[in-house]
């Protein structure tokens, strides 16, 4: 099993990072799915697609959940993630911790999320995600779960692989427990982005070719 430091390095392979001290302004910088601009981007999608790395992530996440959650909640009914990006990871973690179900809420196309599975009253749900920035997706996901089953028991924190912020603003009452909290990550609102001000262009990494544009400059 990889140490957290090794896992961090592996996850960040193929990532983008810019340091102000370098003095150089990159032509492009990432616009995250939260809408925020950043000097750093982990390619969690690529890491999750790597079977070996996904297994390592799952083992580390399961270990953390068992240590932190299981003493209080030995039986977890559901692990639920927002959207499809962590579906494979969430299934692997659910199996490792002995949860009964794993599921995902999905986008409805009108800015909300829907929960299509049948959670029973009193069942215990652990919110889960791969990466959290503002917490918007997680917040929508929790609303979708509560909409289908208001009598669900949400188990404490939202567990995730990477969290860029100490307190994501869209999750004011939900503490976040990340496996990895990366150093040196700066997040900017577009109106006050240092990189944009310096003439760098913000691009969405998931759109065709943009990931390669970001990486080509590192
Ligand atoms: Zn910017």
Task: Please describe what this structure looks like.
- The chain is of the alpha/beta class and 218 residues long.
- The protein folds into 2 domains: 25-42 and 184-218, no CATH class; 44-181, Rossmann fold (3-Layer(aba) Sandwich).
- The chain contains 7 helices and 13 strands.
- The protein has helices spanning 4-12, 44-49, 51-68, 87-97, 136-148, 194-197, 210-215, and strands at residues 16-17, 28-30, 37-38, 40-41, 78-82, 101-107, 113-114, 124-132, 153-154, 158-163, 176-180, 187-188, 201-203.
- Strands 5, 6, 7, 8, 9, 10 and 11 form a 7-stranded mixed beta sheet that branches. Strands 1-4 form a two-stranded antiparallel sheet.
- Strand 8 (124-132), helix 5 and strand 9 (153-154) form a beta-alpha-beta unit.
- The protein is globular and about 55 Å long.
- The mean pLDDT is 92.
- The chain binds zinc ion.
- Zinc ion binds next to helix 6.
Query: End-to-end distance, in Å?
Result: 29 Å
Largest sheet: 7 strands, mixed
Write the CATH fold name of the largest domain: Rossmann fold
Provide the β-strand percentage band: 15-25%
Distinct ligands: zinc ion
Q: Using the CA coordinates, give the radius of gyration.
A: 18 Å
Number of domains: 2
Number of E strands: 13
**Helical amount:** 25-40%
Q: Globular, elongated, flat, extended or rod-shaped: what is the shape?
A: globular
Number of helices: 7
Q: Which CATH C-level class of the largest domain is it? A: Alpha Beta
> What average pLDDT do the residues reach?
92
CATH architecture of the largest domain: 3-Layer(aba) Sandwich
């Amino acid at each position: 099993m990889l140490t957290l430091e090794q896992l961090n390095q592996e996850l960040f392979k193929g990532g983008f990072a810019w340091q102000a001290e370098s003095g150089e302004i990159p032509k492009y910088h990432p616009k995250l799915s939260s809408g925020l601009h950043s000097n750093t981007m982990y390619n969690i999608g690529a890491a999750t697609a790597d079977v070996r790395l996904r297994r390592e992530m799952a083992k580390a996440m399961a270990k953390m959940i068992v240590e932190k959650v299981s003493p209080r909640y030995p039986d977890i009914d559901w692990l639920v993630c927002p959207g499809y990006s962590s579906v494979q990871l969430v299934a692997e973690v659910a199996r490792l911790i002995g949860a009964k179900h794993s599921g995902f809420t999905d986008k409805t196309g009108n800015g909300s999320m829907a929960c299509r599975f049948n959670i029973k009253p009193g069942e215990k749900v652990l919110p889960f995600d791969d990466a959290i920035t503002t917490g918007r997706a997680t917040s929508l996901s929790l609303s979708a779960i509560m909409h289908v089953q208001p009598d669900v028991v949400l188990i404490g924190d939202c567990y995730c692989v990477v969290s860029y912020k100490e307190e994501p603003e869209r999750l004011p009452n939900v503490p976040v427990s990340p496996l990895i909290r990366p150093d040196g990550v700066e997040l900017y609102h577009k109106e006050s982005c240092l990189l944009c001000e310096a003439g760098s262009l913000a691009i969405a990494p998931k759109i065709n070719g943009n990931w390669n544009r970001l990486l080509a400059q590192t």
